[in-house]
Design goal:
Layout: H1 2-7, H2 14-21, H3 25-37, E1 41-43, E2 49-51, H4 53-82, E3 85-92, E4 95-102, E5 117-119, H5 124-131, H6 135-142, H7 149-158, E6 161-164, E7 171-179, E8 185-194, H8 195-198, H9 202-225
Antiparallel strand pairs: 1-2, 3-4, 3-8, 4-5, 6-7, 7-8
């Protein structure tokens, strides 16, 4: 912890760490090697010690857990307002994962348990998670996708996405982006249900409500990120 606290102030050489921590040089060298092994620290181009990527991953996990907790009441409100099951999706590599949900309690519904993984090639949540990516990732994501560049252009213009039978025959959905403090899209809020109830234009009926839920969660996320 003394080493990590010292590196919080910026890159440091072995000699500088010895001086700032008071740890004997051989002991500090062994501890640093162990911390590098676990990716808690690393070396920069000048061979100075710096904080490692694992710390960023742990911080992200903390933020995700807090966002998931914050999403629970928002998804419940969205479900009750629309009468349809509501979900929160995060992108993980080439898939999107349901990290929180509030299911319609009775009647015909689209049941998506927490932890369910779907392809990034279909569905309104996939459209939202891809639409604001940089050009390279956008083109990569469109390869073999059911939706088209024109579809994603429409998502960016409107600020929400809809799908009818993309992920599963007979199922429709509406999604909107959740953004972090840097305005980057970090999640997608969705509702989903049978097309016979959502109609062939689910966004016309539910986009305003889904956008409101996404805005509420965005405000919560930014509050969390800002401490």
């Amino acid at each position: 912890m003394m080493i990590l606290h010292a590196l919080e102030r910026g890159p440091a050489s072995l000699a500088q760490l010895v001086e700032s921590t008071g740890i004997a040089r051989p002991t500090l060298h062994r501890l640093a090697a162990a911390l590098i092994h676990h990716r808690l620290i690393s070396r920069d181009y000048q061979s100075h010690y710096v904080l490692g990527g694992r710390l960023t991953e742990l911080a992200s996990a903390v933020g995700e857990d807090r966002m998931t907790a914050a999403a629970v009441p928002v998804l419940a409100w969205l479900r009750d307002s629309t009468g349809e099951s509501a979900q929160l999706f995060r992108r993980h590599a080439d898939t999107r994962v349901c990290v929180a949900s509030a299911e319609r309690p009775v009647g015909l519904r689209d049941s998506i348990p927490v932890g369910t993984r779907f392809s990034m090639k279909a569905g309104s949540a996939a459209q939202v998670l891809l639409a604001w990516e940089d050009q390279e990732r956008l083109l990569e994501g469109l390869d073999q996708a059911i939706f088209t560049p024109a579809t994603l252009a429409g998502v960016r213009r409107r600020g929400w996405a809809q799908s009818m039978g993309e992920r599963e025959t007979g199922v429709g959905s509406v999604s909107a982006p959740v953004r972090g403090t840097n305005n980057k899209v970090i999640a997608a809020v969705s509702i989903s249900g049978p097309i016979e109830r959502l109609t062939r234009s689910p966004g016309r009926h539910h986009s305003a409500t889904v956008l409101r839920a996404a805005h509420r969660l965005t405000e919560m996320v930014r509050s969390i990120e800002n401490g």
